[in-house]
What does this fold into?
Amino acid sequence: MIAFLKSFVVEVTPESAHLDVNGVGYEVICSVNTLAELQAQTFSLGTGATAKPSKPAQIFTYTHVREDALVLFGFSTRLEKNLFTTLLKVNGIGPKMAINILSVATVSQIQLMLEAEDVKGLSKLPKVGKKTAEQMILALKGKLVTLEETKASKSSAAAAFKGT
It folds into this structure.
């Protein structure tokens, strides 16, 4: 599995980013939010008329393997990747649908809708009907952990360990 890629962004298309990792080109399917961040990092205008690559971008990846395809999905944060992989556990949600969901709502918005059992709000997400929204709530309510919560629990566990 490829955990992340750190490279210069060569091109950003409406659905993907093309990365040059030491001479190997990768196409990575990303959410609209991640693509916007990558577009901002892609080029900085130099003193001349040509654009120059800015600093390397780091993209967290999920490798989806099928019989007929090997597809990389990319995320600007670990939190976005974690939500993506969690959405894949819901019956009826595949990688394309999960990336479309992440394209129209932030991680915190999705988490709030799940915790509030907002079927109507979740149904407004792309290709999510009432049944899928209910399935998402059943499968994910109370199970989404933010990175901040993870860091807080690790630091409190470390403090408890030091105290013994």
Q: What stands out?
A: The first helix runs from residue 32 to 42. The beta strands are 4-12, 16-21, 24-30, 43-45, 51-53, 57-65, 70-75.
